[in-house]
């Protein structure tokens, strides 16, 4: 959620690439793997559900993004 809000704020959410698939486990108890990519940064996560896997990947990706650069870009876009 935090990643999505941040990307919406800087008008870059359309650059987020999202992929989620079953990586292992039986059909009735799968382990999901999610991969989120923003520009050259990649976040990966696993979980019992797609949502848990995506959330884990989003948290990892959010920590990797160069936020000072994007915050500066946002200020420029807003005329600050």
From TrEMBL:
Lineage: superkingdom: Eukaryota
Molecular functions (GO terms): RNA binding
Record's keyword terms, sorted: RNA-binding
Domain DRBM: 1-67
Key word tRNA processing present: no
One Pfam family, short name: dsrm
Keyword Amino-acid biosynthesis: no
InterPro entries in the record: dsRBD_dom (IPR014720)
Name of this chain's protein: DRBM domain-containing protein
Annotated organism of origin: Pyrrhoderma noxium
């Amino acid at each position: 959620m935090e990643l999505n809000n941040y990307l919406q704020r800087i008008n870059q959410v359309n650059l987020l690439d999202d992929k989620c698939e079953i990586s292992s486990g039986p059909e009735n108890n799968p382990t999901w793997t999610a991969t989120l990519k923003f520009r050259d940064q990649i976040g990966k996560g696993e979980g019992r559900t797609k949502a848990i896997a995506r959330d884990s990947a989003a948290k990892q990706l959010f920590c990797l993004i160069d936020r000072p650069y994007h915050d500066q870009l946002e200020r420029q876009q807003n005329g600050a």
